[in-house]
Amino acid sequence: MSVGIVLVSHSAKLAEGLAELAAQMAPDVTIVPAGGLADGSIGTDYDEVVAATQRADRGDGVVLLYDLGSAQMTAELAVESLADPSSAVVADGPLVEGAIAAAVAAQAGEGRQAVAEAAAAAGIPEDLEPAEPTAGGAEVELELRNDVGLHARPAAVLVRTLSEFDAEVTVRLGDQEADGRSVLALMSLGARQGDRILLRATGPQASAALTKAKELVDGNFGE
After folding, report:
1. Which of 77, 97, 121 is the last residue of a domain?
2. Catalytic residue among 10, 160, 181, 200
3. Distances from the Cα of 204 to the Cαs of 110, 137, 160, in angstroms?
4. pLDDT (tens digit, 9 = 90+) per residue, 18-29?
5. Strands (E), the chain
6. Gap between the Cα atoms of 201 and 179, Å rounded
7. Does residue 132 have a pLDDT over 60?
8. According to the model, what pLDDT value does residue 24 have?
9. In this structure, what DSSP letter does residue 178 have?
10. Domain shared by 80 and 115, yes or no
């Protein structure tokens, strides 16, 4: 099981499209859109949000994200009305970036609070730091041969995989370096097909993490 996610939006199309996108990065996570009013018009439907939250809860709780202020109020009221309000939390983060970050965290098996924190942190700009030499550890240079490089789905696959190892991994492109645990940071590198990236890892399972990362890249991330 994993933490479920509910996307509360004034637009049914926005919620459904975002749920479809996030599901590509977190295939084992229940992501339920709750957008628009019952008649198809713009707005948020309290009853629909409550029902969506109940559908999303598979035992590990639910994180709700919202687009605009009144959607936040609807989400919070829905949580308060649950038989166990502590089973769900409304995350204060950007809907699109937050949904992606939350989905990846849930896929990695993180708990409800950690998933909510991942969504909230997605709203904080991540400055790419100039890469500096690091003593020790292991590293491997890889060429991206898949069509889209380190865009959304491949970045999410890499993050999910690296999270399985007891290792700190960074990914370098040119003079910029990103945290291997952050989908948004990896996407911000702008690594495209044909680019060569350098992965550096430290920790007990550093070598194993890099070996698995190489398998992913060599296999075009399963595309």
Report:
1. 121
2. 10
3. 21, 9, 18
4. 999 999 888 999
5. 4-9, 31-35, 62-66, 88-90, 129-130, 138-143, 168-173, 176-179, 196-202
6. 11
7. no
8. 87
9. E
10. yes
Q: CA 105 to CA 16: how far, in whole Å?
A: 20
Q: Is 151 a catalytic residue?
A: no
Q: Could you tell me the CA-to-CA distances from 172 to 141, 184, 218 in Å, in that order? A: 9, 14, 17
Query: Is the overall model pTM greater than 0.90, yes or no?
Result: no
Per residue in 178-194, pLDDT (tens digit) is: 999 888 888 889 899 99
CATH code of the domain in which 92 resides: 3.40.50.510
The 10 Å Cβ neighbour count of residue 10 is 19
Most confident listed range (70-74, 121-125, 127-131): 70-74
Q: How many CB atoms lie within 10 A of CB 65?
A: 31
Average pLDDT, the chain: 90
Residue 132 Cα distances to 60, 143, 150, 176, angstroms: 40, 20, 21, 9
In terms of domains, do 11 and 108 share one? yes
What is the 3-class SS of 44-100, one letter each residue? ECHHHHHHHHHHHCCCCCEEEEECCHHHHHHHHHHHHCCCCHHHEEECCCCHHHHHH
